[in-house]
Amino acid sequence: MSEPKMNFDEALSQLEQVVRQLEAGNLPLERSIELYKQGMSLSNECHQKLQKIEAEVAKLVDSSGNVTDFEIPGE
Q1: Cβ-proximal residues to 68 (8 Å cutoff; 6+ apart), any chain
Q2: Is the pTM of this model over 0.85?
Q3: Do the beta carbons of residue 48 and residue 17 sit within 8 Å?
Q4: Which of 2, 18, 64, 66 could join 39 in a cystine, given CB atoms 3.0 to 4.6 angstroms apart?
Q5: Is 46 within 8 Å of 8 (Cβ atoms)?
Q6: Residue 72 class from Cβ within 10 Å (0-12 exposed, 13-18 middle, 19+ buried)?
Q7: 43: closest CA among 6, 74, 69?
Q8: How many whole angstroms separate alpha carbon 53 and alpha carbon 75?
Q9: Helix ranges (DSSP H) in the chain
């Protein structure tokens, strides 16, 4: 079974933890490479989530800057 997808804040928080560990510089090379790969994956995930959000926002705002009508789920 695959792991559930993280939301943006969770992915960003994990990425920040990875960066802190790498910046500490006291890891064996193999662990550093593993963390680097994990960080790249988290970075890509955050980037994709931001692109999706930007596209959603662009749909809500027309070219003149006016907000279009939209429904908020659950209301």
Answers
A1: 59, 60, 61, 62
A2: no
A3: no
A4: 18
A5: yes
A6: exposed
A7: 6
A8: 20
A9: 8-24, 29-60
